[in-house]
Amino acid sequence: MLLKAVFWDLDGTLIDSEPLWHDGEIEIAHANGGEWTEELGWSVSGTPVPNVAKHMIERGCTLSVEEIDVQLKDYVFQAEVRRLPWIPGVLDVLRSLKEAGIPSMLVTTSPRRMAENIMKQSDGLFAGYVCGDDPYEHKPNPAPYLAAAAKLGIAPEDMGECVVLEDSAVGLKAGAASGATLIAQTGWIRTDTSGLGQFASIDSYDGIDAAALDEFVRRRLEA
């Protein structure tokens, strides 16, 4: 295979976690004098938690940015420890890649404990991860993807032979800037992410396996 590695975003790409974040936002806001809805949650989806917290404060939440950050991450982490809401079919894709000898790397802005929980519950399907606690610029900067590639011994000039799977605007911008063959997962996000440098878009994992991802790389490099 030409495909060297696959780099996976977490939320909305591997797991359908946005509902957990929105449930936490609503619970925290309403418990502390604020107003919040699922629609408001989607409007700031994919942005760092401190940014979400600022919007929650504007809507009347009396907690500080730091307090919201801690409480919201705790809420989602505990929910994910109880059960990871894997997106249908994604574990089959990961197994196909492992069987083909293609490493998968988790690349997330989420904190280390969330990344470690993924590693624990994925039964060895990932070669490693880069998370928000690592000393790299966050997405949309491509640094996390380039750092993940470096961990596998993949040089920046070879990123075209790797696939990045992302869903959010900031993540897609990071993947495009990394030089990778960028695939947008559109099935679990409600915002328009078209025109952000993706080579192709998918709305499920039906028909996706190691061979299909390798074909995306071949088509992109031939274009």
Keywords:
223 residues; Rossmann fold; DNA polymerase, domain 1; 6-stranded parallel sheet; elongated; HAD_sf; HAD-SF_hydro_IA; Haloacid dehalogenase; HAD-like_sf
Quick recap:
Helices cover 45% and strands 11% of the residues.
Query: What would you say the CATH architecture of the largest domain is?
Result: 3-Layer(aba) Sandwich
Number of separate strands = 6
The poorly predicted ranges are none
Give the total of domains: 2
Q: Between the first and last Cα atoms, what is the distance in angstroms? A: 18 Å
Helix content: 40-55%
**How many helices?**
9
Could you give a short account of the major beta sheet?
A: 6 strands, parallel
Would you tell me which CATH topology of the largest domain applies? Rossmann fold
Q: Please state the average pLDDT score.
A: 96
Determine the CATH superfamily of the largest domain: HAD superfamily/HAD-like
Strand fraction: 5-15%
Rounded to an integer, what's the Rg over CA atoms? 17 Å
Task: Tell the overall outline.
Answer: elongated
- Counting helices, strands and paired strands, the structural category is alpha/beta
Question: What is the succession of H and E elements?
Answer: EHHHHHEHEHEHEEH
Biggest sheet strand order reads: 3-2-1-4-5-6
Report the CATH C-level class of the largest domain. Alpha Beta
Protein name: Haloacid dehalogenase
InterPro entries: HAD-like_sf, HAD-SF_hydro_IA, HAD_sf, PGP-like_dom2
